[in-house]
Write a structure and sequence with these properties.
The chain is α/β, with parallel strands linked by helices. It has one domain (2-175): Rossmann fold, CATH 3.40.50. It is 35% helix and 23% strand. The chain contains 5 helices and 7 strands. A 7-stranded mixed sheet has the order 2-3-4-1-5-7-6, sandwiched between helices. The longest helix is centred in the C-terminal third of the chain and has 24 residues, at 152-175.
Length: 179
């Protein structure tokens, strides 16, 4: 069993915000592989599907971003998933807009959802797909920036980046090797 985690905030008011790109990618993965994320456990929506012949538990924590670590730790403990078999998809303000990067063993970069996961797992040795949402304008607090919806131009770019990220996530599990 492996874990695929999308980070975001629950509720329709957050659905198209920068902070919810993790949820957006997870939804696209589920749609592509015809998986249902209909179960509810450990304060998360989840489903189990096969990707590349492997069982993958797909989860969308509903705890709000800053408490995501509880759900990830609960699922990894319940299914006995090692941290090397966890992939977390999330936004990153330090990456240029629309750039993506797989990382493992790196710091949280101030991302409270990732901080929560590192604290609860006791390690940063898990895989992440970071999706760049760019830096906020100087006058805007980063916490407010990530909760804003994309501008029209940004949305056009994200309409390409999110499906490409979906495909990268699926390839990650199919290859069974580190990206």
């Amino acid at each position: 069993m492996r874990l695929l985690v999308g980070l975001g905030n629950p509720g329709s008011k957050y659905s198209l915000t920068r902070h919810n790109v993790g949820f957006n990618v997870i939804d696209l993965v589920a749609e592509k592989i015809e998986a249902k994320i209909a179960g509810k456990k450990f304060s998360s929506f989840f489903g189990i599907a096969k990707i590349g012949g492997q069982d993958v538990c797909i989860i969308k924590p509903q705890t709000f971003m800053n408490l995501s670590g509880s759900a990830v730790a609960d699922f990894s403990g319940y299914y006995k998933v090692g941290t090397e078999d966890i992939l977390v998809v999330h936004d990153d303000i330090d990456l240029p807009f629309a750039k993506t990067r797989f990382v493992s063993g790196s710091g949280a970069g101030g991302h409270n959802g990732v901080i929560s996961i590192i604290e609860r797992l006791g390690t940063n040795e898990f895989w992440r797909l970071k999706i760049g949402v760019g830096r906020p304008p100087d006058a805007l607090d980063p916490a407010d920036y990530v909760l804003e919806k994309f501008t029209g131009e940004e949305k056009l770019l994200m309409d390409k980046v999110l499906p490409a990220s979906r495909d990268a996530v699926i390839k990650f599990f199919i290859d069974k090797v580190n990206p």
